[in-house]
Every structure is written in structure tokens, then in C-alpha cells.
Amino acid sequence: MGLEAKLQQDGFITTTIDSIIAWARKSSVWPMPMGISCCAIEMIAAADPKYDLARFGSEVMRFTPRQCDLMIVAGTVTYKMAQVVRRIYDQMPEPKWVIAMGACTSSGGMYRSYSVVQGIDQFLPVDVYTAGCPPRPENLINAVMTIQQKISKTRARDFQDQPFDNTIITNN
Amino acid sequence: MEMKELIVEKLKKNFGEFVQEVTDFRNDLSITIASNKIVDVAKILKEDPELEFVMCKDVTAIDWATRKNRFTVVYHIYSFKNNITLRIKANIAEESPAIESVTSVWPSANWYERETYDMYGIVFKNHPDLRRMYMPEGFQYHPLRKEFPVLGIPGSLPLPGKI
């Protein structure tokens, strides 16, 4: 029984504001492609016709943070780059989610080095970690689906009183 | 081989005892010179019509940790005319390591010297713009020095603020 069948019967459906807003949010998660290194190639592959991230409503890679809901951090984040990543994250409107794609973003990966941040959760609130070096596109799609599950559990009022925070942190 | 002998001969004629060591390991000619003569040597090698080492391919350094002259600055230069890559080395002391910049001879040395300064803390005197290359401004250490820990010094690099 799909939506079309419902419309043919009665012409209306009953639902709650919370669930329909959550449904709309989770079906149009626009990613901010923070492609910093090789993981970006797999992220592009996930959006191509073979893997087709559009099936989940996430094909609209926006290169401005102001139009994004989901930041996919795909690549090694150095301490110098961390300032930039956080600055872009701060410019995304609420509500927003973060995927740490790959070993480097999750834990520093093979770069156990002075210049690389050992896990971006030191400065970003990460929702989903993705294993792999780099993760296959299926793995990224799985991460997006996990984000969708997380969004479907949210209520509209969870975010209603959060004004857009446009104070950009300059902590150099 | 004739060409290499000519290079060494010319340098020895011009600089005498300032040419400290000449090795030719596996056909790589390497000449160690006194560090205070680096710009003069560079000028001769570039401007001599028979040599014409017009391209500076790399400037880097070695930290020997325990030697009296702790650092060695290494220059790789190339002559299109003779198809020879030449390595010039200059040993410098640990105490406030500094050497004259060769940017006046090879402008391409600009960023190489900045990188070497960033990683080893070697000051290139009369460099037009001696800022750090990779590490952020205000970072206090030089990561490729032997005493610097691989994982860095905690708190020395700032992360962005609130979560």
C-alpha cells in the first residue's frame, strides 16, 4: 500500500507534523562534499549512476555550506585544515549532521603524525563513522542510510529554537 | 667524466680550500663546500659559460643529531647544457643555524628554502620572504629535527573551538 493508493481511496492521509517533517528531512539530505583527499574519489563514485546516491535523496552535492544538511568529511584532516573544516561546518544551517568518512577522519588512520588530527571528533560532533581506506561507495551509502534512520527519529521541535549561528570561530 | 673533472677543477681554482670534499658515488657528483661561500659558488656554477647550472631542483637539509656541525644543507642543481645533476652540500653548526640564501642566483630556491626553514629551523639570510611553508604561523617547533617527537607536542597546534 503506497502513497498513490492512499490518494486514490480517500485523498488524504493522517500523520503527525513531527513524522512528516522528519520524513521530508531524511529524504532530502543535501551533502557538503568536504573532499580533502583520496576518499573524495569514492564519494564521487557514490554519486555516479552506478551507485546512485540520488536513490536516497542525497545527490545534490552543494559547494556552499549554506545549502547543506550533511557534511561528509572525506579525507585526511591536518591541524591546519581543521580550522577550515570547522569554519565551513559553522556556516551550515541547523539541523546538520556529520559523516566521518574513512580511517583518516575517524582516527588519523595511517597518518600517526604530528600534522594530522587523530580523529575529527576532537573538533566536530560526528554522527556516523565509516570504516575503510578508502570506504567503498556502498559503505558511504550505508552511512547516509544510517543518518536517515537517525533523522527519522528526530522531532521537529528538537531544532525549532536554534537560531542560525553565524558567529564564525576564528581560533588561530 | 671529463665534465665532472672540469666542474671540480673550476671550483677548486676559484675557492681553494673552501671546497672541502668531493665524492662521486654511483655517478652522483657531490661537492661539500664551506657554508659562507655558498652564494659565490652558486654564481660561478650558474654563470660559467661551460657549466650553466641554471636550474635549482631542490634545497633541503639533513639533521645529523650528534655531529658538531649538526646540519647539512643540500642543493640539487641541474645543467641542461651538459645534462648533469650536481649536489652541493654545506655543513652548518647547531648554534643558531643560518646560511646565506641563494634566491638571488636561483629564484626557484625561494619556496625550497622556506620549507627547509619550516622543517629544520635553518635561517636563510637575505631571503625575500622567510615564512613557514607547511606548519601554521606561530608554531614554535621544527618537525624534522631529530628531537621532535613523531606525534608532535600536545597542545602546540590549536584546534578550533567549541563542539
Named CATH architecture of chain A: 3-Layer(aba) Sandwich
Q: Largest interface, per-chain counts?
A: A-B, 19 and 19 residues
Number of domains of chain A: 1
**How much β-strand is present in the residues of chain B?**
25-35%
Strand order of the largest sheet of chain B: 1-2-5-4-3
Helix content of chain B: 10-25%
Mean pLDDT over the residues of chain B = 90
The beta-strand count of chain A equals: 4
Query: Strands of the biggest beta sheet of chain A: in what spatial order?
Result: 1-2-3-4
Overall domain count of chain B? 1
How would you explain this protein's 3D organization?
The complex is a heterodimer of chains A (172) and B (163). Chain A contains 6 helices and 4 strands. Chain A has one domain: Rossmann fold (3-Layer(aba) Sandwich), CATH 3.40.50. In chain A, helix 2 (17-26) packs antiparallel against helix 6 (137-152) and helix 3 (39-47) packs across helix 6. Chain A has 172 residues and is an alpha/beta fold. Chain A has a 4-stranded parallel sheet. Helix content of chain A is 35%, strand content 10%. The radius of gyration of chain A is 18 Å and the shape is elongated. Chain B has one domain: Beta Polymerase, domain 2, CATH 3.30.460.80. Chain B contains 3 helices and 7 strands, in the order H-E-E-H-E-E-E-E-H-E. Chain B is elongated, with a radius of gyration of 18 Å. Classes of the chains: A alpha/beta (172), B alpha/beta (163).
Structure, briefly:
The complex is a heterodimer of chains A (172) and B (163). With 172 residues, chain A is an alpha/beta fold. Chain A contains six helices and four strands.
Name a few traits of the molecule.
heterodimer, A: alpha/beta, Rossmann fold, 10% strand, B: 163 residues, alpha/beta, Beta Polymerase, domain 2, 5-stranded mixed sheet, two-stranded parallel ribbon, 3 helices, elongated
